[in-house]
Amino acid sequence: MGINDASHGGSDPGAVSGGLREKDFTLQAANYMYDRFKELGVPVAITRDDDTTLSRAERLSTMTDTFGNDSKVIVLSNHINAGGGDSYCVVL
Ligand SMILES: [Zn+2]
């Protein structure tokens, strides 16, 4: 079982370069992975499936509300970083 986290989102674009925003790519990757895990019968939850701003606490709540504090839960937090610039990522 796992949690699929689309990092950033909403007012937090993540890395930005030439009109490309990290949040858009992480959402696309997370939605693809979420659908694929479901197809394979893997119990999975997703932190966001649209362009929503989520706090770290809200991301963590999705995890604990879905699977509790089970030590067997795997969290996949998608990031697509860029070299240089002023962006940063917070890893859960
Ligand atoms: Zn990031």
Give a structural overview:
The chain has helices at 22-39, 56-67, and strands at 2-6, 16-17, 20-21, 44-46, 74-78. It has 92 residues and is α/β, with parallel strands linked by helices. It has one domain (2-78): Zn-dependent exopeptidases (Aminopeptidase, 3-Layer(aba) Sandwich), CATH 3.40.630. A three-stranded parallel β-sheet has the order 4-1-5, sandwiched between helices. Strands 2-3 form a two-stranded antiparallel sheet. The protein is globular. The mean pLDDT is 88. The site of zinc ion (ZN) has 7 residues, from loops.
Class of secondary structure makeup: alpha/beta
Strand/helix succession: EEEHEHE
Number of strands: 5
Q: What is the domain tally?
A: 1
Number of helices: 2
Strand share of the residues?
15-25%
CATH topology group: Aminopeptidase
Which small-molecule ligands are present, each listed once?
A: zinc ion
User: Please, what is the CATH homologous superfamily?
Assistant: Zn-dependent exopeptidases
- Return the CATH architecture: 3-Layer(aba) Sandwich
Task: Report, as a whole number of angstroms, the end-to-end distance.
Answer: 17 Å
- Sheet with most strands: 3 strands, parallel
Mean pLDDT equals 88
Which CATH C-level class is it?
Alpha Beta
Sequence of strands across the biggest β-sheet = 4-1-5
Roughly how many Å is the radius of gyration? 13 Å
Shape assignment: globular
List the main descriptive attributes of the protein structure presented here.
92 residues; alpha/beta; Aminopeptidase; three-stranded parallel sheet; two-stranded antiparallel ribbon; binds zinc ion
